[in-house]
Amino acid sequence: MVKKVTKVALIYDFDGTLSTTDMQDYALIPELGMKPKDFWPVANQWSIDNGADQVTGSMYYFVKTAKEKGVKLTVENFRNAGKNIVYFDGVEEWFDRITAYGRELDLEVEHYIISAGYEEILQGTKIYKFFKNVFGCSFAFGEDGTPIWPARVINYSTKTQYLSKINKGLGKLEDRLVNEFMPDEERPIPFRRMIYFGDGSTDIPSMKLTKERHGTAIAVYNTKSPRGEAKQKAIKLLRDGRVNFALPADYREGKQIDKVIKTILDKLAKERDLEVLQAKEEKKKQSARLH
After folding, report:
1. Number of domains in the chain
2. What is the domain range of residue 268?
């Protein structure tokens, strides 16, 4: 009999969760000759003035600003921006280490990103290779290689549909199937074996859904944020019951996140073992009834 694989999904927001700030801030906005503190207020105000979703509006505003400033945005241009991203301590070593730890427990750990940032930038990052799938905003490109339309938009509330896709083992383009009925026992990764990492209010719907369905939600925070604001925000999420843990964004071995995740993996492995034992006992019961 083939042994059933026990999969665990570690799901990450990106900006402020794995990277120290928004992915566009490191190279893309400076390439437009602007500073993030000047770009974002204007882009967000454009969305407000035009009744646009903030994420969709910012995608348009990047394209608009690039044209006005004579900067040709291309896929390669976006990917190059991904090379300049700065991560929190330990991020680059995290994925291999946690995957290997899971393997020791006969758990297949899969890593995913669900981000309102841009897939084209994420494709250029050092850590892109570690992910089973990356769900992010994406552009459609014209014949000249420049963006002409948002191909995919992921905002704060729509992030949750991608949790359902992971739960059902669906790809990013399988939109119709996400709402189709699938028995719980056929779903490759139950919510109880999902761990969601986020850094703030934009992740609340995903955190809440994961926690309500018996998975684990973790709010991470930058310990270097001004006046400890990021920590206060994470603690509030914990206090309000939105998350299970509020932890410093430090992914190095032996740090709090490392200890918590390894403990959760230990627990999931024990639960799996207990389910196997219970199934054997159930078979004994059924066999006894037949005789």
Report:
1. 1
2. 6-21+87-290
